Amino acid sequence: MSPAPARDGPPRFDLPYRLFGRARGVATGGHKALGQGANGAFLRHASLLEQPDARRIDMRASLLDPFGGLKVRRFEHRARIDVFVVLDLSGSMSFRRDGQGEDPVADLCAAIAHAAIRSHDRFGLIAAGPEPLAELGVRATARRGVPDELWRRLSAEPGAGRGSRGLLAAVEELPQRRALVFVVSDFLMPQAEIEDLLGALWRHDVAPVVVRSSAVEAPPPRFGLLETRDLETGRRRLLVMRPSLREKWIAHARARRAALDESFRRFGRPAFDLVDRFDADAFADHLLTGGA
Amino acid sequence: MRRPDWRTVALGAALALGVVAALQPETEAERPTYDVVAFVDITGSMNARDYRDASGRPQSRLEAVKTRLSTAVGRLPCGSKMGLGVFTERRVFLLFEPMDICRNYGAIAGAIAGLDWRMGWEGDSRVASAVFAALDMLAPMNADIVFLTDGQEAPPMRTDMPLEYSGDKDKVKGLLVGVGGTELVPIPKHDDFGRETGFYAMEDVPQASRLGPPPTGAENLPGYNARNAPFGEMPAGEEHLTSVRESYLGDLGRMTGLGYARLDQPDALAQAIAANARPRPVPVAVDLSPLPAAAALLALVALYGVPPLARLGRRRAPTHASRSFN
Amino acid sequence: MTGLGFDHPWALLLLPLALLPFLVSPLRLSGVPSAEVAPEDTLSRAVGAGIVALGALAIVLLVLGLSGLHRRDHVVERTGVGANIVLLIDRSSSMDSTFANRRPDGAEESKSVAARRLLTDFAARRPADRVAVAAFSTAPMLVIPMTDKHDAVRAAIGAIDRPGLAHTDVGRGLSLAFSMFDETSTETSRAIVLVSDGAAVIDRRVQDALRAAAARDPVRLYWLFLRTAGARGITDRPPPGDPDSPQTYPERHLDIFFKTLGLPYRSFEARSAGEVSDAIREIDQLEQRPTLYSETIPRQDLDWLCYWAAAGALLLLLAAKLSERRLEDWEGEALLPSPLRGGVGGGGGAGEGATRIVASRRRALHSAPPPTLALPRKGGGNAPDVHSQQPDSGRAAS
């Protein structure tokens, strides 16, 4: 099968995401679920009396049974899950997302949507800045057009406002059933707020995605005056760039990232770093090794 | 290198303009200055109180002259000179010659404040003669005249003998300043010790001139007596009351080539002096530095002021643009 | 005292403009997701405050310059050697004749002209003096109050050769002179110089007043008597038999009266301009006492100083502006390793099929459907299908 033409963002690929633990739900899908099903990975043998399914009689096992009972193969149930993206669209997320160049966030969300729908899961999105952005949200759906549409909408929505308190309110709308939730944010909020958010998502399998920009983590090496403006608060800061400050700056960024990692580990998974641009391979690697 | 930021340009411009301002560019200009001698009438009628001071209390004409004249000369451009004289009887008495007002303002103001009717050496008030005398005095000094008087001739002028001025009308310029109100007011009377003892009554002052030969036809006047009363008996009159004689002073001014102004607020007096005295241009350096300094300030204000204004405009305009998708 | 003044104080209304630098930066700002991305830095904070201050300072200085800041002319008290002198000058008409009692002609100057000339010299020689000038004739006249402006003194002395008035009222002139010393003139240095060419009877009441004034304000009194040829002198005594009354010998009796005042008193009788000059020189030598006099320091414009300082501030600002850096010009440097790529990962076990996908490259990844894909509904995930749904997708999603 050929990839979708890149009319709405970069080409999209399937992603090997996985839900930690077993999914619940009756709708058939691609994820290990609670219960037994008729298809998929072998689980155990059962007696035909217990499970009168003549089509799945395991002849070999029946013959090897010293008691001569007829054995029926039981399989794991595989269920469909909901894949959600909880997207922080506060002002800080507008950094380098002016709709001109690449938009890694839109790329990532569209890629997740694409992959989820391709995997016969449902995809949904919850976006919030300081207030929940209901009109940007996507209800759990398997509709095919969603990735492209989402990509276009997110590209046009740089994010605004101060703080991401809206996220906490918005995650209430997630389904009760355990879902895979990608929390996409720069996590440049107070540690307590991060933990509140992660705590509110206890029911779900949370996969954080940290949106980072190497430009602000490692400043330009030249001497000079750099005046920064906080995209959320508008606060200005003047910085006298020099090697010692640059080193301090990098160390500062490292420390912040390490603290973040600490939180994420406490709440489950390590985070994926979306640095500068969306690298589908790296994301796939991440999902395989550390994530779902 | 990229095109520099406009703010860099604004800063550079402000810097350059600031340096230009600091170098104090100058241009030469001429400023009119005046050289005047003020003569103040200190005769008795100047004690009449028909002015009001700043707090609204009645003020004598002489006091009004003193406060307003010293303020007015302070308004004359620097480099102007002023002398001071007093007038009673038929002559003027020069207290000091013209001196630079700006440098000696304290002394001038002190001298003006020291004017007193007690300086008067005689009670008569021959305004026209004194003006002529003052003009004679000033002609060799090349100074202009400011003659402050109420115009009250005491004793009154002969109505049948027209006044004539024989001097040169253009030698001395300047103005007569009429002091007093247009309403008739009584004149305070003082005793030998200078204490005020009431007001002059009609009988206290001559109501008509008795100078010179009697006019023709005086025989027909009431009370005529060839030896004892060649002018007839003293007619009733209002010479014991006083008001500013504006028309008389105006005529006197026209006769002598002087202007006339009523004593009003100091600014008006300074303007009247400037309008009537001969301006003597002196070269002065005019500092041009405010121009580049103002431009530098403008550049700085633009540097700091335009971004917030632009932001304000941007915020107002595109409310629909950010949500255009929905 | 020393004070600052403004030529155009209304221009100070522009001072609030100096608040602008606190609100706006001359540098181009670089948006960052959060102010916390940069570490705290004391130097940076100081420089930031400095740039704000420089901007405000430049505006304040320009406004101050525009409003014509200057140091007002002020008076400095100095001590010098001189005196506080009241020149009491006779301006009776007799002063207009010469010492020989003739009408002045080209050869001989009148007494008033000589007095004017010599007194002008006298005042010019003594810069530390404070001088007041009074004239007397029929009435006493204050000419110039006590001043250290020698211009003013010269102008006042300059007027004494104008035609004078009839009488000589010495007594009231003197009492005016006594009243002209102000508080700033130190008591020890007060002197009255009476210049006259005659004397007159002093009214008894005025005599009493003068005695009281002399007791109250001790001054030194000098009488410079310009004696006209043929007139009586100070020391002339009446021949025996003649009545010795103030009416007939006013000069002698005035001298006697002065001596009774109890003041340091000297009289000088001058019969010619030369003698006047000698007398004045003697007074000059006698009146050498410490005095407080004031000197006026003329106003100093300070606007040029403001402009230079503003230019200095602007130069620093420009230097700051020229060393401006922006994040926008900077692509960044991936110095920070992703914690996961650094080998931290591997927390979850690999599910089935995982190894296959890890091994596959991108091309393989997107061409292979997930291995455990359940039966596709509605014909599976074909790309054309995706795009055919686009027209109504927006509506469906919102």
From TrEMBL, chain A:
InterPro entries: DUF58, vWFA_dom_sf
Superkingdom, taxonomy of origin: Bacteria
SUPFAM superfamilies linked to this entry: vWA-like
Domain (DUF58): residue spans on this chain: 70-258
PANTHER family xrefs: BLL2464 PROTEIN
Name of the molecule in the record: Uncharacterized protein (DUF58 family)
Organism: Methylopila capsulata
Upper lineage: Bacteria, Pseudomonadati, Pseudomonadota, Alphaproteobacteria, Hyphomicrobiales
UniProtKB/TrEMBL annotation, chain B:
Keywords: Signal
Gene3D superfamilies xrefs: von Willebrand factor, type A domain
Residue ranges of every copy of the VWFA domain listed in the record: 33-220
Keyword Signal: yes
Record-linked SMART domains: VWA (SM00327)
Spans through the membrane: none
Top-level lineage group: Bacteria
Signal peptide stretch: 1-21
The protein's name in its UniProt record: MxaL protein
Organism from which the protein derives: Methylopila capsulata
UniProtKB/TrEMBL annotation, chain C:
InterPro entries cross-referenced by the UniProt entry: VWF_A, vWFA_dom_sf
Keyword Transmembrane on entry: yes
Compositional bias of kind Gly residues: 342-352
Region of interest (Disordered), ranges: 336-398
TM region(s), chain numbering: 47-69
Domain VWFA: 84-222
Keyword terms of this UniProt record: Membrane, Transmembrane, Transmembrane helix
The protein's name in its UniProt record: MxaC protein
